[in-house]
Specification:
- With 308 residues, this protein is α+β, with helices and mostly antiparallel strands.
- The chain has two domains: 159 residues, no CATH class; 97 residues, Immunoglobulins (Immunoglobulin-like), CATH 2.60.40.10.
- The protein contains eight helices and twelve strands.
- Strands 4, 6, 7, 10, 11 and 12 form a six-stranded mixed sheet that branches. A four-stranded antiparallel sheet has the order 3-5-9-8, with no helix packed on it. Strands 1-2 form a two-stranded antiparallel sheet.
- A hairpin with a 6-residue loop joins strand 1 and strand 2.
- Helix 1 packs across helix 2, helix 5 runs antiparallel to helix 6 and helix 6 packs across helix 8.
- The longest helix has 38 residues.
- The protein is globular and about 80 Å long.
Length: 308
């Protein structure tokens, strides 16, 4: 059945009236089976597999990503921007996965051409061409993780990153399947740039992986908070108050490890609202949710239900 109306309404609610029709049309156009297939089941779900097609040809299937990105300039409001960026980064991550599959296919061909010279020997040109593809593969992998991290807010989305690392990279050897042959042909180990960077290149942000909207009376709301950046935050604080009333009280977050923090609110006696603020090592001020402190995360006390 037609779905354009649904996605127009979805875009209006999430991104605002200014892009509702255009964004809705793009999202409807890639709904379901219309989305380019860039992974397959190979020892598990969502495995990146080699694609023999050239990337320039496959890239045409992702033209919608740039069309979607061009709408961003028309969006107003922090909440609309944050929700739009989630989808834009999701689409860009899918495009990066598609490019990685094509690069692996290109690498297979380059190594095949290199090996085809035996027993006469591999030329320096062919070895260098294979290495160039291998390095590009590592670079695009870094881009993929930047996009995917920017579109990660939940434990399930963190699982997507874990799946990429454990299944595609470690189990199915997406990168290093040909490393020994390339190294032997070069007569030297692969250079450092053939290894994906461990440096986080994305924008600093606050993530609350599990967002609860209700708690029991007397329950203390416990939160895990991630202040995603390359260095520990200078400050990380939760501000809370009774829903719609009074001034905000503050509770400092406790640093657990790396970018992870924890915090607990006092036992609930009434509905409340809260937001989280952090200052990065570079001096950038972050807030969660993005609309804070004008619009904060609300938590209501659930009503007790009588036993049937």
């Amino acid at each position: 059945m037609p779905i354009a109306d649904f996605y127009t309404d979805f875009a209006r609610a999430n991104f605002g009236e200014s892009v509702a029709v255009e964004a809705g049309a793009i999202m409807a156009g890639v709904d379901g089976v219309k989305m380019p297939k860039v992974t397959d089941w190979k020892g598990g779900p969502g495995t990146i597999v080699a694609n023999a097609a050239p990337w320039q040809k496959v890239k045409e299937q992702f033209a919608f990503v740039e069309s979607f990105a061009k709408l961003r300039a028309q969006i107003r409001g922090a909440g609309n921007h944050a929700r739009f960026d989630y989808w834009l980064n999701t689409y860009r991550a899918a495009e990066a996965v598609g490019q990685i599959g094509c690069l692996r296919g290109e690498l297979d061909r380059a190594v095949g051409a290199m090996k085809g010279k035996k027993p006469t020997g591999t030329s320096a040109k062919e070895a260098a061409e294979a290495l160039a593809v291998r390095v590009k593969l590592a670079q695009v992998w870094g881009q993929l993780l930047s996009y995917q991290t920017a579109a990660t807010d939940t434990p399930g989305e963190m699982g997507t990153i874990a799946n990429l690392e454990m299944l595609s990279r470690r189990t199915n050897h997406l990168f290093e399947a040909h490393d020994k042959e390339i190294s032997e042909a070069l007569g030297a180990p692969l250079p450092a740039e053939a290894t994906p960077s461990t440096h986080f290149d994305g924008a600093a942000r606050i993530i609350v992986p599990t967002v609860r909207t209700q708690i029991d009376a007397g329950e203390s709301l416990k939160l895990k908070v991630i202040v995603l950046d390359n260095q520990d935050a200078k400050t990380a604080t939760l501000f809370w108050r009774e829903l719609g009333h009074g001034g905000f009280q503050k509770v400092d977050l406790t640093h657990v490890a790396r970018s992870v923090y924890s915090v607990s609110l006092p036992a609930a006696g009434h509905d409340c609202e809260y937001y989280i603020s952090a200052k990065t090592a570079a001096g950038e001020n972050l807030v969660w949710p993005p609309t804070a402190p004008a619009q904060n995360q609300t938590v209501v006390i659930s009503e007790a239900r009588a036993n049937p």
